Amino acid sequence: MKKLLTSPSKMPLSEVEANIYQNILKLIPDVSLNLMAVKVSNHPEDFASWCYELIDVVSKRINFDLLEANQLPILKKIQQQLEAGISISQIKTLRIAPWPVVFDSIQQNKERIVLDEQLALLKHIESIRETSLVDMIEEDKLTFAGKHTAKHDPSIYQFDVEWLASTKTAKALHNVIATSCTDLNEALNHIPLEGDITLENYMDFVRGYIAAFAAVDNEKATLAPATRLLAMRRPDFFTPVTAASLDILCQAFSLVRLNNQDFDRYWHDIVMAIHKQPWFIATTPEVKEEQALWQYKALVPCWFAYYSGDAKENSNYYKALHKPKRASSEKSGGRKRGKESAEALVDRALAAEDMPQHIKNMRDSIVKEVAAGRGVDETIALMRTIFG
Q: Which residue, of 51, 286, 301, 325, has the greatest Cβ tally within 10 A?
């Protein structure tokens, strides 16, 4: 363990990596006896791999039964520093990596980053992108904006809507969506659905976005939720960020940290910087598998950030799939839907090629059950059982 803890001192660390290493060393003494009891045979030679090895130690291999209560927060801080170290080191490689290397790296880590689920989200967004935000059903509005609710039926939404910069804590954004959706939609319309996007297009969006917030009890418009909306509108152009991921991006690209209202610097320092990377300006790949990711190339930095080994199990979609079945006498628990949403969700399910006609003929009955809070798959399965 001692060799593992000291090995970064012999690595060619960047200033940011060296600072992270020093921060970890300051925390180590308080848990050193516990760490020294862990046997280590793997001694990585690069900083990102070193972080992965140590994070495995502090999260899985250390004896938690021997830890004092006051040591747990320290262990958590070490883990957070290691996660940041991994993200920064991996995103830094994007400054020199060609597209084939970027694509291969994503493919090699697709299980860890739960890529299939994220692509399912993007495919769904693609199906509703041309629909006005005003005209979307509630579930789709929240999917576009990045907030999961119990109404996201896992039989229809086969992904966690909070991948790619969750906005679950952005109360102001969801207040605006609920009360000033028309203004927000007009702001998004300044961003063309295809073709080039100019600085003027972007600044028109920013002005409309800020005005939409101001119209709702002078809510404060912040940057991170705006980037989620922009990225879902044009995932080939805009990179979504959260407060935490923005800090990591800035460190990886050696930028002064942006504040939560730096709309101008987001365009110049983040968007334009990413657009200058070698993998971004490469010619469109000819291989079909590569093209599937190329259409979302502005999201690449999201896929180079740290993902824990249990990222899939922590997905809201996974949790919904494995949620204990409700007892038949149990009430819907607040999952009631509007009729418009219920109709849209049922129609999507009934559109399946293998759906029997006699089940399709029961559409109104199924809609009624779904509006009351029952799951779409659950309701259809019940109809199949009863009517064959």
A: 51
CA distance 134 to 125: 15
Supply the DSSP string of 116-151, one letter for each residue: HHHHHHHHHHHHHTTS-TTTS-HHHHHHHHT---TT
Residue 332: which residues within 8 A CB-CB, separation 6 or more? 372, 373, 374
pTM above 0.90, yes or no: no
Contact residues for 114 (Cβ-Cβ < 8 A; gap 6+): 163, 307, 311, 312, 315
Residues 354/348/130/196 CA torsion (nearest 10 deg): -50
Pull the structure tokens for residue 71. Answer: 């040591």
Cα 355 from chain centre? 32
Residue with tokens 């960020």: 241
pLDDT per residue as tens digits for the range 283-318: 999 999 999 999 999 999 999 999 999 999 999 999
**Cβ-Cβ contacts under 8 Å for 125 (sequence gap 6 or more):** 143, 144, 232, 235
Contact between 274 and 298 under an 8 Å Cβ cutoff? The reply is yes
Check whether 271 has a pLDDT greater than 90: yes
Residues 63, 67: Cα–Cα separation, whole Å? 7
Q: Label residue 326 by pLDDT band (50, 70, 90).
A: low
Can you give the C-alpha Rg of the chain in angstroms? 23
Residue 386 vs residue 321, higher pLDDT:
321
Task: Calculate ∠ Cα 246-252-258, nearest 5°.
Answer: 35
Measured CA distances, 62 to 32, 37, 84, 86, 293 (Å): 11, 8, 21, 20, 38
